[in-house]
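PTS EIIA type-4 domain-containing protein: structure, please.
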Amino acid sequence: MPRPPHAAPPSRMRRIRLRRSARIAPRGAREARRGGAITMAGVVIVAHAPLASSLLSCATHVFGTVSDVVAYDVGADDDPGKTLDAVRNRIAAVDRGEGVLVLTDVVGATPSNQADKAAHLANDAGIPTSVVAGTNLPMLLRALTNRHLPLDETVQRVLDGGAHAILEMEAPPTRFARPLGGDARGPEGKPTPARPAAAPPQGGGSSGPAKPDPRRPE
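Here you go.
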């Protein structure tokens, strides 16, 4: 059957598909598909409700279903002991022998405090566990795409990803912005005169008549 003239050659289409899969899938997952026994660090997200589950939802929107990644939302009235037990249970559930990364939101708040306690208990129990606070979505995505690495390297890449993702974006110019010292065109194309600069108040900026300067002779 002849190939339509607009279709790409089969070999080129295959290369495109391979490049797309290489961008999306973590390296460990690609090696696992080739038959290697690759294990990755587990991830537990602990944050004020509903941030933890929302971050996980965003991650599944990007990557689809992710294994050994769970979220725990801490409610405003939750007992700290309940939160501690819940985080400990989730750390144990996602551990596959490569350690667990706990991502939390605000340093010093209940979620991070209980996550830190749970991590210490997990380390005492033989589960390497690290906690990173200040989590945002870029940090979570970095964690998911680098958790095939040793846990300490994963932590460093997560920190780098969070720092690099926080920046001020340059805003586009306003459509009808008034240039300094000139005129701008309004919505109907008519020139709008520039507003004259206000004269500085006399007498050091105070209201009322200007006071004479004692150093200046009358």
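Notes: The two ends are 105 Å apart (CA to CA).
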